[in-house]
């Protein structure tokens, strides 16, 4: 897991300079980007920690609970230990001889989920790692990574379960489509975000991944000899629906907190059902 900080550092310059061109962003940057980034930031009614600065791009209050949970999972390394335990168990349970693709797909799932945890901590808690000030360029860096990690999470889940289900039906085409979608999200995050067109394109692409591509995977799973694995999708489903509808708006535990909880539950369900599938 020590590779993750190195990876983040290596791409930091690329992600930031795609928009800033190495120049320090003017102070009016945050105010100018309020409209274009409001789709991707925290609920305005969330409780904030004492003395914490607002989000630099939107000016909205910084959440307390969300940042605390993601910060704990990252700093305590508890999520990464869980991921390592899953990988170890999966390796021991895989049929012999172990195929490289089987290992690669599970590494992808663990990598995407672990990156999501680390990036969420980076996006919600940058003031905890500095003098309490947050610059727009730093927040933009984490926002771009956040989009990429969510799309990668959707793709790695589809690829793993398409393989588990034996690539039946149109699953090979779904796998190609979700891979292309993640590539498109990467490009749009680097080039178009934080413009409104960038946010809209990224979110529509991820909606296509979740509703159409993963939806087809669920149909295949329900009609397979192991329909229980379709439960993975329904663990993710509430969070994505509520995040899209921006409801409920609650001071402490609103739609964004439910989204994070649902995503973490979906990660654990995917790992757990994969081990059940391999039993």
UniProtKB/TrEMBL annotation:
GO terms for cellular component: membrane. Keywords: Membrane, Transmembrane, Transmembrane helix. It comes from the Eukaryota. Its main location: membrane. The chain crosses the membrane at residues 79-97, 169-193, 200-224, 230-246. It is a multi-pass membrane protein. The keyword Lipid metabolism does not apply. It is found in: Membrane. InterPro entries: AdipoR/HlyIII-related. This is Uncharacterized protein. It comes from Chrysophaeum taylorii.
């Amino acid at each position: 897991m020590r590779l993750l900080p190195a990876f983040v550092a290596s791409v930091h310059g690329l992600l930031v300079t795609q928009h800033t061109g190495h120049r320090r962003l003017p102070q009016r940057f945050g105010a100018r980007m309020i409209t274009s980034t409001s789709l991707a930031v925290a609920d305005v009614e969330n409780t904030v920690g004492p003395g914490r600065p607002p989000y630099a791009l939107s000016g909205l209050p910084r959440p307390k609970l969300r940042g605390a949970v993601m910060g704990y999972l990252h700093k305590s390394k508890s999520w990464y230990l869980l991921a390592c335990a899953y990988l170890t168990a999966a390796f021991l349970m895989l049929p012999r001889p172990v195929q490289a693709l089987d290992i690669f797909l599970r590494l992808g799932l663990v990598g995407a989920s672990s990156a999501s945890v680390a990036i969420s901590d980076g996006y919600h808690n940058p003031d905890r790692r500095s003098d309490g000030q947050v610059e727009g360029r730093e927040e933009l860096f984490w926002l771009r990574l956040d989009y990429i990690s969510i799309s990668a999470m959707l793709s790695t889940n589809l690829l793993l379960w398409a393989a588990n289900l034996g690539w039946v039906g149109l699953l090979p085409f779904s796998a190609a489509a979700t891979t292309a979608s993640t590539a498109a999200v990467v490009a749009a995050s680097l080039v178009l975000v934080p413009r409104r067109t960038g946010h809209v394109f990224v979110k529509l692409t991820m909606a296509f991944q979740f509703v159409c591509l993963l939806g087809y995977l669920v149909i295949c799973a329900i009609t397979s000899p192991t329909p229980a694995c379709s439960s993975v999708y329904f663990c993710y489903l509430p969070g994505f629906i509520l995040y899209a509808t921006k409801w409920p708006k609650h001071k402490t535990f609103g739609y964004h907190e439910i989204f994070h909880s649902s995503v973490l539950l979906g990660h654990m369900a995917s790992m757990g059902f994969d081990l059940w599938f391999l039993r």
